Amino acid sequence: MTAPRIIGFDATPLEVAYRSGVSRAVCELLRALAMRDDRWRYVALASRRLRTPLPSGVEGPYGPRLPNRFLWFQLALPRTIARLKPALCHFTNSVAPLADSTPYALTIHDVSLFLHPATQPRKSLFLVRTLMPVVARRARAVVAVSAAARRDIIEVLRVPGDRVHVVANGVAGEFHRMAQNALAETCRKYSLHRPFVLHVGNVEPRKNLERLIRAFMEVRRGGRVEELVLAGQLGWRYRSVLRLIEDERLGGAVRLIGYVPDSELPALYNLARVLAFPSLYEGFGLPILEAMACGTPVITSNRGAMAEQAGDAALLIDPLEVGEITAALERVLGDEALREQLCAAGIGRAAAFSWARSAADMVRIYERIGRSEF
User: Fold this and answer.
1) CATH of the domain at 241
2) Which end of the chain has the smaller Cβ count within 10 Å, N or C?
3) Assigned domain for 175 exists
């Protein structure tokens, strides 16, 4: 029997205390990869202590601890890779070391640093945006999480199309319709005693929350009694959202409940009347499919990856038009037949996405790198 071949797997997204889109996607992919019975052996590479336990069968984490992740990638990681001697590496979030010749796959979740720089932190603009095109062109294979992200990578980073491959994210099995009695604890913890519109994601400019709040204000003026619940940690440039809530005296109608652990997200989706996700730009948009899997109607943007994931199972709106967001909210909240239609369509749509399928697609890329086909 052939001995397993080592893959150095970039686990730095699992170092964060509060997991969001990228860190959750990397965690689920690694878990699905580790569950496969194949010839690959996964060794996690990390610059500091992981906040998320590694799946059974994954070794590590390996690598000296450094507080600066960017310096760790460029100065410390090449030495670790030289000692480990993997067959290949998989760098999972747009960054890779320059001083190493090991073949690698590079996942780029989106190119918002280039397309929407005003919505990004200054540190990322200075460091990651400079490095990303270089490491993308050096990669044996660049992995996009959607067809829309693939098009953006090819156009913006000038990577040849035959080197950019789509490995779509999945929907974890925990996301499904739940019985009412299973929702009581989440109701109590977050004081969810009235019907509500839900948004899941960090409070940051790209999520377009100011327009969502203004649309929700119009819905409330029309007589609706639902609350707007914003689930996610405060990211960056969030003060304008807080000011809008304060200036319009919306404290009783718009609630920020902070970071919600992964274990509580399925119940939160099940409790919501609708998920409103009018983001300006996403590489994938996990909340869209997770909400659908839970039987929750979805309103999302009519552009890029969001329209791609939603298909015909959601109401699509122009995220720049407050009036369109308002009209969609009013339709879903006021039309029970439409809600049931979207619920059924969403469950069917979400069923097409699984992490087992994502892992299988990823392994095919590893195999081709291992055979020097890229």
Assistant:
1) 3.40.50.2000
2) N
3) no
